[in-house]
Protein backbone atom coordinates (compact mmCIF):
# COMPACT_ATOMS: atom_id res chain seq x y z
CA UNK A 1 0.00 0.00 0.00
CA UNK A 2 1.30 3.46 -0.92
CA UNK A 3 -0.06 6.45 0.95
CA UNK A 4 -0.01 9.91 -0.64
CA UNK A 5 2.44 12.18 1.15
CA UNK A 6 2.98 15.86 0.37
CA UNK A 7 6.56 16.70 -0.58
CA UNK A 8 6.79 20.41 0.18
CA UNK A 9 9.70 22.79 -0.38
CA UNK A 10 10.33 26.24 -1.76
CA UNK A 11 8.25 26.84 -4.87
CA UNK A 12 11.22 26.91 -7.25
CA UNK A 13 12.68 23.71 -5.78
CA UNK A 14 9.38 21.88 -6.12
CA UNK A 15 9.14 22.91 -9.77
CA UNK A 16 12.76 22.01 -10.53
CA UNK A 17 12.31 18.54 -9.03
CA UNK A 18 8.96 18.00 -10.71
CA UNK A 19 7.30 17.70 -7.33
CA UNK A 20 4.25 19.76 -6.43
CA UNK A 21 1.28 19.47 -4.16
CA UNK A 22 -0.70 17.63 -6.80
CA UNK A 23 2.08 15.08 -7.36
CA UNK A 24 3.38 14.90 -3.82
CA UNK A 25 3.65 11.67 -1.99
CA UNK A 26 0.55 12.69 2.45
CA UNK A 27 -2.98 13.12 1.63
CA UNK A 28 -4.38 16.47 2.71
CA UNK A 29 -7.08 14.92 4.88
CA UNK A 30 -4.49 12.86 6.75
CA UNK A 31 -2.28 15.93 7.23
CA UNK A 32 -5.24 17.93 8.57
CA UNK A 33 -6.04 15.14 11.03
CA UNK A 34 -2.38 14.94 12.04
CA UNK A 35 -2.17 18.66 12.72
CA UNK A 36 -5.37 18.43 14.72
CA UNK A 37 -3.65 16.13 17.20
CA UNK A 38 -1.14 18.83 18.05
CA UNK A 39 -3.45 21.84 17.81
CA UNK A 40 -5.78 20.35 20.42
CA UNK A 41 -2.91 20.16 22.91
CA UNK A 42 -1.70 16.63 22.24
CA UNK A 43 1.89 15.57 22.90
CA UNK A 44 4.54 16.57 20.39
CA UNK A 45 7.38 14.36 21.54
CA UNK A 46 9.51 12.76 18.81
CA UNK A 47 11.58 9.69 19.72
CA UNK A 48 14.58 9.11 17.43
CA UNK A 49 16.56 5.87 17.49
CA UNK A 50 19.85 5.17 15.71
CA UNK A 51 22.00 2.13 16.46
CA UNK A 52 22.02 1.77 20.27
CA UNK A 53 21.10 5.40 21.06
CA UNK A 54 17.70 6.96 21.69
CA UNK A 55 16.86 10.67 21.75
CA UNK A 56 13.66 12.33 22.98
CA UNK A 57 13.21 15.48 20.90
CA UNK A 58 10.77 18.31 21.53
CA UNK A 59 9.69 21.33 19.45
CA UNK A 60 12.40 23.95 19.25
CA UNK A 61 15.13 21.28 19.27
CA UNK A 62 16.01 20.47 15.65
CA UNK A 63 17.53 17.00 15.32
CA UNK A 64 20.14 16.56 12.58
CA UNK A 65 21.84 13.51 11.08
CA UNK A 66 24.79 13.09 8.71
CA UNK A 67 28.59 12.65 8.68
CA UNK A 68 29.35 16.02 10.27
CA UNK A 69 30.58 15.68 13.88
CA UNK A 70 28.15 18.41 14.93
CA UNK A 71 25.10 16.36 13.90
CA UNK A 72 22.82 14.98 16.59
CA UNK A 73 23.17 11.47 15.11
CA UNK A 74 26.60 11.06 13.49
CA UNK A 75 26.73 8.58 10.62
CA UNK A 76 29.98 6.80 9.65
CA UNK A 77 32.58 9.45 8.78
CA UNK A 78 34.37 7.19 6.28
CA UNK A 79 31.29 6.71 4.10
CA UNK A 80 31.59 9.62 1.67
CA UNK A 81 28.37 8.51 0.01
CA UNK A 82 26.53 10.04 2.98
CA UNK A 83 26.18 13.82 3.07
CA UNK A 84 27.76 15.72 5.94
CA UNK A 85 24.33 17.17 6.64
CA UNK A 86 21.99 14.53 5.27
CA UNK A 87 18.76 15.59 6.93
CA UNK A 88 16.92 16.86 9.97
CA UNK A 89 13.67 16.59 11.91
CA UNK A 90 12.06 19.95 12.68
CA UNK A 91 8.78 20.96 14.28
CA UNK A 92 6.87 23.70 12.45
CA UNK A 93 3.42 24.40 11.04
CA UNK A 94 1.86 22.27 13.76
CA UNK A 95 3.75 19.02 13.20
CA UNK A 96 7.13 17.31 12.83
CA UNK A 97 8.77 17.32 9.39
CA UNK A 98 11.66 15.48 7.81
CA UNK A 99 13.92 17.83 5.82
CA UNK A 100 16.39 16.57 3.22
CA UNK A 101 19.33 18.91 3.87
CA UNK A 102 21.63 17.25 1.33
CA UNK A 103 22.48 18.97 -1.93
CA UNK A 104 22.57 15.75 -3.94
CA UNK A 105 21.34 12.62 -2.11
CA UNK A 106 17.82 11.24 -1.81
CA UNK A 107 16.26 10.11 1.46
CA UNK A 108 13.70 7.32 1.71
CA UNK A 109 10.91 7.33 4.30
CA UNK A 110 9.11 4.08 5.18
CA UNK A 111 6.02 3.96 7.38
CA UNK A 112 4.76 1.21 9.63
CA UNK A 113 1.70 0.67 7.42
CA UNK A 114 3.52 0.16 4.17
CA UNK A 115 3.87 3.65 2.67
CA UNK A 116 7.11 4.76 1.03
CA UNK A 117 8.25 8.24 0.00
CA UNK A 118 11.46 9.15 -1.82
CA UNK A 119 12.46 12.66 -0.75
CA UNK A 120 14.66 14.71 -3.12
CA UNK A 121 17.25 17.24 -1.87
CA UNK A 122 15.82 20.46 -0.52
CA UNK A 123 12.33 19.10 0.11
CA UNK A 124 10.46 18.15 3.28
CA UNK A 125 7.60 15.87 4.31
CA UNK A 126 5.42 15.75 7.44
CA UNK A 127 5.80 12.74 9.71
CA UNK A 128 2.29 11.43 10.15
CA UNK A 129 2.62 7.80 11.22
CA UNK A 130 3.36 6.68 14.76
CA UNK A 131 6.37 4.62 13.66
CA UNK A 132 8.56 5.27 10.64
CA UNK A 133 12.15 4.98 9.51
CA UNK A 134 14.43 7.05 7.31
CA UNK A 135 16.82 5.17 5.04
CA UNK A 136 20.14 6.81 4.14
CA UNK A 137 22.02 5.05 1.35
CA UNK A 138 25.79 5.50 1.42
CA UNK A 139 28.68 4.15 -0.62
CA UNK A 140 29.70 1.66 2.07
CA UNK A 141 26.35 0.73 3.52
CA UNK A 142 22.75 1.62 4.28
CA UNK A 143 21.82 3.37 7.52
CA UNK A 144 18.46 3.51 9.26
CA UNK A 145 17.14 6.17 11.61
CA UNK A 146 13.95 5.06 13.34
CA UNK A 147 11.21 7.33 14.62
CA UNK A 148 8.32 7.04 16.98
CA UNK A 149 5.59 9.62 17.56
CA UNK A 150 3.83 8.54 20.77
CA UNK A 151 1.06 11.08 20.16
CA UNK A 152 -0.08 9.06 17.11
CA UNK A 153 0.16 5.72 18.93
CA UNK A 154 -2.57 4.12 21.00
CA UNK A 155 0.07 3.02 23.52
CA UNK A 156 1.16 5.64 26.08
CA UNK A 157 4.69 6.95 26.28
CA UNK A 158 5.73 5.28 29.51
CA UNK A 159 8.91 7.26 30.08
CA UNK A 160 6.94 10.48 29.69
CA UNK A 161 4.31 9.33 32.18
CA UNK A 162 6.99 8.29 34.64
CA UNK A 163 8.34 11.86 34.81
CA UNK A 164 5.00 13.63 34.55
CA UNK A 165 4.48 13.95 38.31
CA UNK A 166 1.20 13.38 40.15
CA UNK A 167 -1.64 11.84 38.18
CA UNK A 168 -5.34 12.50 38.56
CA UNK A 169 -6.50 11.59 42.02
CA UNK A 170 -3.21 12.65 43.61
CA UNK A 171 -1.30 9.40 43.16
CA UNK A 172 2.13 9.66 41.59
CA UNK A 173 2.68 8.04 38.22
CA UNK A 174 5.96 6.20 38.65
CA UNK A 175 8.10 4.06 36.39
CA UNK A 176 7.59 1.06 38.68
CA UNK A 177 3.84 1.37 38.22
CA UNK A 178 4.02 1.34 34.44
CA UNK A 179 7.07 -0.85 33.87
CA UNK A 180 7.07 -4.56 34.56
CA UNK A 181 10.48 -5.56 35.98
CA UNK A 182 12.39 -7.82 33.58
CA UNK A 183 14.46 -10.73 34.84
CA UNK A 184 17.70 -11.87 33.27
CA UNK A 185 15.94 -14.68 31.42
CA UNK A 186 13.26 -12.21 30.25
CA UNK A 187 15.97 -10.04 28.74
CA UNK A 188 17.61 -13.05 27.12
CA UNK A 189 14.48 -14.17 25.30
CA UNK A 190 13.47 -10.62 24.38
CA UNK A 191 16.93 -9.81 23.02
CA UNK A 192 16.78 -12.94 20.86
CA UNK A 193 13.24 -12.37 19.66
CA UNK A 194 13.74 -8.65 18.98
CA UNK A 195 17.36 -8.87 17.80
CA UNK A 196 16.45 -7.33 14.44
CA UNK A 197 15.22 -4.19 16.21
CA UNK A 198 18.40 -3.86 18.28
CA UNK A 199 21.11 -4.46 15.69
CA UNK A 200 19.95 -1.81 13.15
CA UNK A 201 22.09 -3.44 10.45
CA UNK A 202 19.44 -4.11 7.86
CA UNK A 203 17.51 -1.96 5.41
CA UNK A 204 14.27 -3.94 5.51
CA UNK A 205 11.55 -3.56 8.11
CA UNK A 206 12.42 -5.41 11.32
CA UNK A 207 10.10 -8.09 12.64
CA UNK A 208 10.09 -10.29 15.73
CA UNK A 209 11.81 -13.62 15.24
CA UNK A 210 9.56 -16.66 15.36
CA UNK A 211 9.37 -18.65 18.56
CA UNK A 212 11.16 -21.51 16.79
CA UNK A 213 14.05 -19.35 15.54
CA UNK A 214 14.34 -17.68 18.94
CA UNK A 215 14.46 -21.08 20.65
CA UNK A 216 17.27 -22.24 18.37
CA UNK A 217 19.15 -19.00 19.03
CA UNK A 218 19.20 -19.41 22.82
CA UNK A 219 18.76 -23.16 23.29
CA UNK A 220 15.21 -23.11 24.62
CA UNK A 221 12.08 -24.94 23.54
CA UNK A 222 9.80 -23.05 21.16
CA UNK A 223 6.76 -23.41 23.43
CA UNK A 224 8.81 -22.01 26.35
CA UNK A 225 9.76 -18.96 24.26
CA UNK A 226 6.14 -18.36 23.24
CA UNK A 227 4.89 -18.76 26.81
CA UNK A 228 7.51 -16.39 28.25
CA UNK A 229 6.82 -13.67 25.66
CA UNK A 230 3.09 -13.99 26.28
CA UNK A 231 3.74 -13.68 30.01
CA UNK A 232 5.74 -10.45 29.50
CA UNK A 233 3.08 -9.01 27.18
CA UNK A 234 0.39 -9.84 29.72
CA UNK A 235 2.34 -8.12 32.51
CA UNK A 236 2.33 -4.85 30.60
CA UNK A 237 -1.32 -5.27 29.59
CA UNK A 238 -2.28 -5.75 33.25
CA UNK A 239 -0.50 -2.49 34.08
CA UNK A 240 -2.94 -0.71 31.78
CA UNK A 241 -0.82 -0.38 28.64
CA UNK A 242 -3.19 -0.58 25.65
CA UNK A 243 -2.34 -1.76 22.15
CA UNK A 244 -0.68 -5.01 23.19
CA UNK A 245 -3.28 -7.34 21.74
CA UNK A 246 -3.94 -8.60 18.25
CA UNK A 247 -1.65 -9.60 15.37
CA UNK A 248 0.84 -6.75 16.00
CA UNK A 249 1.15 -7.28 19.75
CA UNK A 250 4.77 -8.50 19.62
CA UNK A 251 5.83 -5.70 17.27
CA UNK A 252 4.25 -3.09 19.53
CA UNK A 253 5.84 -4.68 22.59
CA UNK A 254 9.27 -4.48 20.91
CA UNK A 255 8.88 -0.80 20.03
CA UNK A 256 7.52 0.01 23.49
CA UNK A 257 10.42 -1.69 25.30
CA UNK A 258 13.08 -0.15 23.06
CA UNK A 259 11.72 3.40 22.89
CA UNK A 260 11.36 3.55 26.69
CA UNK A 261 14.85 2.15 27.27
CA UNK A 262 13.66 -1.04 28.95
CA UNK A 263 15.44 -3.12 26.30
CA UNK A 264 18.69 -1.85 24.75
CA UNK A 265 21.49 -3.02 22.51
CA UNK A 266 23.46 -3.85 25.65
CA UNK A 267 21.06 -6.77 26.19
CA UNK A 268 22.42 -8.38 23.02
CA UNK A 269 25.48 -9.32 25.08
CA UNK A 270 23.30 -11.92 26.78
CA UNK A 271 22.97 -13.87 23.55
CA UNK A 272 25.32 -16.75 22.73
CA UNK A 273 27.80 -16.13 19.94
CA UNK A 274 26.56 -16.96 16.46
CA UNK A 275 28.21 -20.09 14.98
CA UNK A 276 30.79 -19.45 12.30
CA UNK A 277 29.38 -19.88 8.77
CA UNK A 278 30.22 -23.04 6.90
* Rg result: 20 Å
Number of helices: 9
Lateral arrangement of strands in the main beta sheet: 2-1-11-10-7-8
Terminal Cα span:
39 Å
Low-confidence stretches: 1-43, 153-177
Shape: globular
Overall helicity:
25-40%
| CATH architecture grouping of the largest domain | Sandwich
Q: CATH first level of the largest domain: which class? A: Mainly Beta
Largest sheet: 6 strands, antiparallel
> What's the helix-strand series?
HHEEEEEEEEEEEHHHHHHH
The CATH topology name of the largest domain reads Tumour Suppressor Smad4
Number of discrete domains: 2
Number of strands: 11
Give me the secondary-structure category: alpha+beta
Mean pLDDT: 74
Task: Report the β-strand fraction as a percent range.
Answer: 15-25%
Verbal overview:
Helix 5 (184-193) crosses helix 7 and helix 7 (211-218) packs across helix 8. The strands form 2 sheets. Strands 2-1-11-10-7-8 form a 6-stranded antiparallel β-sheet, with no helix packed on it. It contains 9 helices and 11 strands. A hairpin with a 4-residue loop joins strand 10 (131-137) and strand 11. The model is unreliable at 1-43 and 153-177 (pLDDT under 50). It has 2 domains: 11-152, Tumour Suppressor Smad4; 158-270, no CATH class. The chain has 278 residues and is an alpha+beta fold. The chain is globular.
Amino acid sequence: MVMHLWAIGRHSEAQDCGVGRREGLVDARSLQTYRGVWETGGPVLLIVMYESRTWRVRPGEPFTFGRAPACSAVLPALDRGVSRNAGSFRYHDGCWWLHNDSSSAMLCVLGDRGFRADLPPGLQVPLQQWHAKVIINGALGTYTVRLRLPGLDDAPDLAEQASAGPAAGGSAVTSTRYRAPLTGSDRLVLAARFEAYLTWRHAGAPAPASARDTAERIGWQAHTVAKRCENIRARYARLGVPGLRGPRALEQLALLLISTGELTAADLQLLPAMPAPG
